[in-house]
Each structure stands twice: as structure tokens, then as C-alpha cells.
Amino acid sequence: MLADLARSLDYALISVRRLLKQIGYFRSYTHNGKWYTMRDSPQFNRDGIWHHKDIGFSRHGSLIATIVHLVARSPAGLSARDLGEKLQHPCHAVLTNLHKNQVLDRVQVSGQFRYLAVEQEINCRQREQTAILAPSTPVTSLSTQAAVWVLVEHIKNPGLSFAQLADRIQEQRHLALAPESIQQFFREQDLKKTPEAPS
Predict the structure, then answer these.
(1) Are 106 and 115 in contact (CB under 8 A)?
(2) CATH number, domain at 95?
(3) Do residues 128 and 135 make contact, with C-beta atoms less than 8 angstroms apart?
(4) What's the number of domains the chain is made of?
(5) pLDDT tens-place string over residues 125-161
(6) 51 forms bridges with which residues in the sheet?
């Protein structure tokens, strides 16, 4: 830290700052930027990150500058967890502020936010990739519980018509379903049905 270096060299802080500027340095993105290292000391990884114990340094500068750089170069953006793993530093609050200040964009995928660049060309590409990552949700005309009851009754009595299935579920489960909704459900799920019994 600057104060330690100033004491060791018996220099004033302003002189230490001037000396560091001349010889080159990196300032930590962790610990509120209190730690300094010489420019030739870090062995940066491919993300431009280097750690000395729990102190993080970035080729890109501050925590904010590093986050913006990492997000922009990611094909599908990055989640807070992704960034936390890369930086070995929590950044949820910083990401929230960056989105609020329109420095980063974000979309929700599988229950978590992925942060995207705001530059239009990069943003469009990242949004296309996040759409690929998002799991497709099957569309059905019935609720999950109703669908389960329909399938149970169909397995027990495969010869029942859609109208009879609706009557059985009304009688046993006290749930009113239209025969047309059950038929649509079978069609959506590509379920085969034996010929219907006469009503």
C-alpha cells in the first residue's frame, strides 16, 4: 500500500505517486484499490486477471472497467456467478448499479440474469446466443396438475373418450375440464389415443 511504501522509502506520498507513475504500476480492483504492484510483476491469465493471495489485479484497470471488458468479449454475456468466479470477488451490487446506470444490459435466462454489452452490434449477438441457452418451455393447454390427472385417467382407462375423461376428472378430482382442452393437450404432446368408446 502507498503508506507502507512511503514509510519504507522515507518518501512523501506525493513523491511515491510520482515515482510509481514513472516506472508503471497496477492498482488492485479489490480492497478498494488500496494495493499496488509493479507493472512487470503480474502474470495475467487469459482474462487479464492476476491474484496475489486475495488481492486481485486486472490488466484492464478498475473492477468496473474489468467487468465491462469481460462482459463485452463474452459471446452470450456473463452472470454474476460467472464474473464472481473469474474475478474471485463478489460483484452483484456493482452489476446492479451498472445495469441501473445503463452501462450494461441484462436478460433473464433460467432464473438468473446474464449481463450483456450495451453496444448495439455486440448486444444483438449476445441476445441471440442467450436465446439459444434458454431452455424451451413446452406449451400446454392444461395446468401441470390437470395434465397429470388426465394422463393418470388415460392410463387407467385408455378407451375413454375425451368427454368421458372430462367427466371422470370432474367426478373424482372436482376439476372442470373441457373435452376440447384435453384433446388439444393430447395433440400438443403428440399422444396417441385408442378409438374413443361410444358416449
Answers:
(1) yes
(2) 1.10.10.10
(3) no
(4) 3
(5) 999 988 877 655 444 567 788 888 899 999 998 889 9
(6) 56
